[in-house]
Every structure is written in structure tokens, then in C-alpha cells.
Amino acid sequence: MAKKLDLRSAFTDEQTQEIQNITEKAITSADTIDHPFELGKSYLIRTVTMVDVGRVTKVTRHFIVMDNASWIADTGRFGECLKGPDEFKEIEPFPYQIYINLDSIIDATPWPFTLPTKSK
């Protein structure tokens, strides 16, 4: 049976801490990208197949994560729906957070209104 190699004894406490710091920074920066979304703000996002509104909680390399989100099955006239949630014809709230693939986004705009919470 092969003996396990324990590298912890090969480094000082300071070296071990430095390795942990470098690793943590690499993991964090690997998932960081430039994006126009402000965390905690609400947006209306049009994708290739649908419209969603919700509050952005996180943006990763491939996904935007939103809570308090709803799928807007029918916006009515798009220019009119931008005036507020009362203009939406059909609303389907998500019971959980949602993940939107960044590659599927056509456009997005800040949503300065109350997020819809009831089906319509």
C-alpha cells in the first residue's frame, strides 16, 4: 500500500496561507466578468424566447441570477410595457431564483417599478 504524501508539513504556516490566498483569488477572479448589471437592482431582460423581470443577485461568467423574478408571457405592446407592470398582459412569477444564460440576452433595461408578484 502506497504511503500518502502530506504536503502540509512541507510548507510553513505563512507559505500555506499565501497558497490559500492565491488559490482563493484565482477561483474568485475566474468567475468575474465585466457586465452592466448592478447587484440588487431590478431589470427587464429580453432573451431569444422570453421576457423576464427580477432583481439581480449575482452575475457569473455564463449566467445572471435573479430573485423575485417573473416570466412575462405577454408584454402587450413592448413600448407600453416599459411604462410599468400594470401594462403586462400575462405574468407568471417564479417561485425560486432564476438563471439566465448571458448568451441568450437580446437586450435589458433597468426596471424602476415594483416587481410583479402575482399571476395575471
Named CATH architecture of one domain: Roll
End-to-end span in angstroms? Answer: 66 Å
Mean pLDDT across all residues, rounded?
A: 87
Strand content: 25-35%
Q: Topology as H/E string? A: HEEEHEEE
Number of helical regions: 2
Residue share in helices? Answer: 10-25%
Query: Cα-atom Rg, whole angstroms?
Result: 21 Å
The major pleated sheet works out as: 6 strands, antiparallel
Unreliable stretches: none
Shape: elongated
At CATH level 3, the topology of one domain is SH3 type barrels
The structural class is alpha+beta
How many E strands?
Answer: 6
CATH class of one domain: Mainly Beta
Give a structural overview:
The chain has a domain at 42-110: Roll (SH3 type barrels), CATH 2.30.30. Strands 1, 2, 3, 4, 5 and 6 form a 6-stranded antiparallel β-sheet that branches. The chain is elongated, with a radius of gyration of 21 Å. The termini are far apart. The model has no long low-confidence stretch (mean pLDDT 87). It has helices at residues 13-30, 78-81, and strands at 42-47, 51-59, 63-74, 90-93, 98-101, 105-110. The chain has 120 residues and is α+β, with helices and mostly antiparallel strands.
